[in-house]
Amino acid sequence: MSLTLTLHTQPTVPLEADAIAPERLEGMTPDQISAVALQYGNQRAQIGDFFKVEGTCNGEIRVAGDASRVKRMGSGMTRGKIVIEGDAGMHLGAGMAGGEIRVEGDAGEWLGAEMSGGRITVTGNAGHMVGSALRGTRKGVEGGEIIVHGNAGNEVGSGMRRGLIAIGGDSGDFTGVNMLAGTVVVLGRLGWRTGAGMKRGTIVSAQPAELLPTFFYACAYRPVALRLVLAHLRNLGLPVTDAQLTGRYRRWSGDGVELSKGEILLLDVS
Amino acid sequence: MQINGIPVADTFAEAFAMWGARVLITAENEKWAQAAARTMTGFATSVIGCKCEAGIERTVPAAETPDGRPGVAVLLFAMDSAGVGKRLVERIGQCVMTCPTTACYNGLTAEESVMVGGALRFFGDGYQASKLLDGRRYWRVPVMDGEFLVEERFGVQKAVGGGNLLILGDDTAAALAAAEAAVAAMQQVPGVILPFPDGVVRSGSKVGSRYKALIASTNDAYCPSLRAVAPNTQLPEDVGCVLEIVIDGLDLPAVEEAMRRGLQAVARPGIRQISAGNYGGNLGQFKIGLHALLNGAGETA
């Protein structure tokens, strides 16, 4: 039987809930889970103070209710699955190394920040800093996948080192800023200053974009590697069209202020 | 024992332990996927002279390939896993990477793997890049038509080489017709290839030679022109042509199934006997008895 946590009391300040991860609640009775400590503002609290606990954790946790003020769920998790039936708060899945998180709603800022494995899927929108490096660090995502079906805010994939981030809608400014490697796919529009400071890696958009002058046009072609990536995303449920899958992409190399080994691929709609 | 009134010799095919890999080649259309596959499997009839044995396993519909383009599956065999790796690097590098629009993927899930794309990437001279997707790394090597995409590692597994059938016919026409029918039937079996030209070999060999430099020489026991002089001729009267079909497979059941289908298909008018080649059971690890195959059993020893 999976564990269901139903929010009965809405936090008025952020609730730090990194205890909500499959490996941390496995083998506990509902009473033990209710007594697990959380940080609530500057006070100590327990899961039971905010959630109705039903069942036991067999590797899967379901969180029901508006958890947009519940932070850090699944952070650092290495296995199992979390399904959030509603919105999720900041730092969801931050630093996770394995397992799966699915949000049937929106997710807050710092989604999957510095994660190294596993997969996060958000059916709605996500805030700023999706899969990015934390302030003061240079490396963002080092592995795993983040799939956002809606829009995302600024600095998607900042400092990304490896892995795949896909945004079904639009992304904000500075997408892929300071990327070291990895892949960011945006099916909608890119914001300003895409790829600023990127060394390597790939940023893809299915829409035209105005790029920084430190990116240089190379050619229009059909990179087979991109077909693999897009087919993979389609299999994961992202609405990749045939035109996007098989189309020609205009390749821009950059950022010229760095190694110029990065690339921005824009679907050729001409 | 007979099939359709044609005698089947009470003997066995002596097969060998090898290592195999499956390569999936895709391209913009089937013509170019086939071109790369044909080139890669050229000069790969026998490990004796070619260092590996390779052939086309099947065409793969676009819907079944990783990049959604038409594909061709190739099997390659060598005597050890390191040998498979070396031959893959050579042949994918020279025959697939050179072919317009192709990409090349591992087609075998196995516990062991060898580095292929990870070696070929250096052709990119520092401009190469990789993508890691679902735990598999792919190298993008810049080439003049865009990029050559090749998977970093290819699975290798223990395999079986040297399954065979000998078709003893009245004349060339009868033996060829029977061999062609057998090849058509055997090529339907997944996991096997017939590495000789269109699946058929006429220059069957025996181990050793009177000439010290040669490790193999003509199989005089099955040469019709030597029936009167060869000390150990195995040919009945009126046999004017012998053709052999050699089978390599990713596992023994696949080789056995191919031989079983071949036996049925080869039993046609003009065939005097169906037999198999062996070395007295002293060299190969597998003995595939023809009678046992027809009785539904597998390896006899």
In short:
The complex is a heterodimer of chains A (270) and B (301). Chain A is mainly β and 270 residues long.
Structural write-up:
The complex is a heterodimer of chains A (270) and B (301). Chain A has 270 residues and is mainly beta. Chain A has a domain at 106-267. Chain A has 4 helices and 17 strands. In chain A, a hairpin with a 7-residue loop joins strand 16 and strand 17 (262-267). Chain A is elongated and about 60 Å long. The relative contact order of chain A is 0.09. The model of chain A has no long low-confidence stretch (mean pLDDT 97). With 301 residues, chain B is an alpha+beta fold. Chain B folds into 2 domains: 2-15 and 160-294, Alpha-Beta Plaits (2-Layer Sandwich), CATH 3.30.70.520; 19-157, 2-Layer Sandwich (Alpha-Beta Plaits). Helices cover 23% and strands 35% of the residues of chain B. Chain B has 7 helices and 17 strands. Chain B has helices at 30-40, 47-50, 81-96, 117-120, 172-186, 252-266, 290-294; strands at 2-3, 6-7, 12-26, 53-60, 71-78, 103-106, 112-115, 129-133, 136-143, 146-151, 153-169, 192-193, 205-207, 216-218, 241-249, 271-275, 286-289. The model of chain B has no long low-confidence stretch (mean pLDDT 96). Classes of the chains: A mainly beta (270), B alpha+beta (301).
